[in-house]
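Q: What does the predicted 3D structure of Adenylyl-sulfate kinase look like?
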Amino acid sequence: MFPKAKVAGPGGGSAKGCVLWFTGLSGAGKSTLAARLSEMVQAREHFVEVLDGDLVRQHLSQGLGFTKEDRDMNVRRIGFVARLLAHNGCCAITAAISPYRCVRDEVRAMVDPARAEFIEVFVNAPLSVVEERDTKGLYKKARAGLIKNFTGVSDPYEVPKNPEVVVHTGDETVEESAAKVLDFLHRRGLLADQ
């Protein structure tokens, strides 16, 4: 059984949904942060779903490669599902590199501001930090030329110009980064107090 969503903000009615769009380099901590934030939002009895980039590629975007066109299509698909969830009162958290600013802006435009909010969260970790982490060994392979079109190495990452929230996962703990996002949601009236 699903928990009942608490009313967020004055005036009664259902809690307004949101799309929390986490963007950043591979290994920046998007999935880890999304998982922790999901727990924190659920603890406040608000509906939440995480759309993780790796899982979406397996189930929703299977067959897409890593050309710019395929990456853009993947991001649009994630955005479409996130919008559906958010328009129905859910907090949809996405964790995908989404390297190109133009398609991120496209997804932002999909979300009807009367029904949900789009919140871009820049998960900022320097290339040196994510290469040092390299939990999947992808940067090492990219540097060796074994992976083509790899974001941050042989393909660009376009830093968000005006994200609503910036977390610095090279310097902050997961708890500190999650607290920043949670504080923003509270200030926007998107979450009830615990």
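A (community wiki): The structure tokens above were generated from the sequence. Confidence is low (pLDDT under 50) at residues 1-13. The chain has one domain: 18-188.
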